Amino acid sequence: MENKSPIGIIGAMEVEVNSIIARLAGKESSGTAGLLFYTGELEGVPVVVAECGPGKVNSAVCAQIMILKYKPRLIINTGVAGGVGVKIGDLVTAECCVQHDFDTTAIGDPLGTLFIRREGRSEDIMKLPCDPNASRVLMEEARDIYGGAHLGVIATGDIFVADKEKNRWLGEKFGAKAVEMEGGSIAQACYMNGVPCAVLRAISDSANDDSPVDFPAFARETAEKSAELLIRAVRKL
Ligand code: ADE
Fold first, then answer.
1. CATH class of residue range 7-236
2. How far lies 32's CA from each of 37, 52, 78, in Å?
3. With 70 as the cut, is the pLDDT of residue 215 above it?
4. What are 237's strand-pairing partners?
5. Longest CA–CA separation in the chain, Å
6. Ligand 1 pocket check: which of 77, 88, 92, 204 to mutate, most ligand atoms within 8 Å of Cβ?
């Protein structure tokens, strides 16, 4: 029998989700904690879509509410990111996410190590897993449509990175291909709840000195590229 539980879709900014919300058939909305959750069918697939606002706390709260209220079978985070060794306009799908700003190194822990509770136990984790099947579907779709499609680590933190030294460090320290502000916290909420997740990002800027100019210039176009790809892939997820 067909699985009727929805796919959850989260974007931080309006431009990251508005083209998806506009395409929903049988659209309804409901609010919790100041967030609006839109339900409906995208290409015939039940989905729930929300704009969470920027950063790790906003996105984790949104993911947790979505999980408890709508019981999604998969959550996908779509949007834009700063590129780390990849070009503006390229697409990056996360093989896993890290939180680059979680730092307890002063008391001896490796950078980015998170301490979580899961299934009644404590656990240390740095690489937050993404669903390999969903990531493969998104990658295949990206390769079919666009030239620059990459599978790799996405680094998340509560910082808009506009600094080439920090960019180099993200590549060296974590092997990151993109940096953004929500994927790793959504992946953490999903992991703690046993819900599969995927993170899909189009590169809006190069996370360097040019970012204050490039981000506003390319955010809309690249956010829509990520959303468009997700719309094309949704029936296969
Ligand atoms: N999202 C888009 N560009 C970004 C950047 N340079 N840093 C963090 N998040 C981003």
1. alpha beta
2. 8, 11, 21
3. yes
4. none
5. 52
6. 204
Helix (H, G, I), strand (E, B) or coil at 120: coil
Name the H helices within the chain.
14-22, 56-70, 132-145, 164-174, 183-193, 211-233
Q: Write down the pTM of the prediction.
A: 0.97
What's the pLDDT score for residue 237?
97
CA neighbor of 10 nearest in space, from 182, 218, 141 = 182
Q: Judge whether 81 and 201 are in contact, CB under 8 Å.
A: yes
- Let me know if 124 is a catalytic residue: no
What's the number of CA atoms in the CB half-sphere (13 Å) around residue 172?
6
In ligand 1, the atom with minimum distance to the C-alpha of 207 is: 6
Tokens of 3: 């699985």
Mutate to test the pocket of ligand 1, among 211, 218, 225 (most ligand atoms within 8 A of CB): 211
In angstroms, the CA 112 to CA 126 distance is 6
Backbone angles phi, psi at 67, to 5 degrees: -65, -45
Q: Which residues contact 205 (CB under 8 A, 6 or more apart)?
A: 80, 82, 83, 88, 162, 211, 214, 215, 218
* Model pLDDT, residue 3: 65
Residue 4, Cβ neighbours under 10 Å: how many?
7
To the query of whether residue 90 is one of the catalytic residues in this protein, the response is no
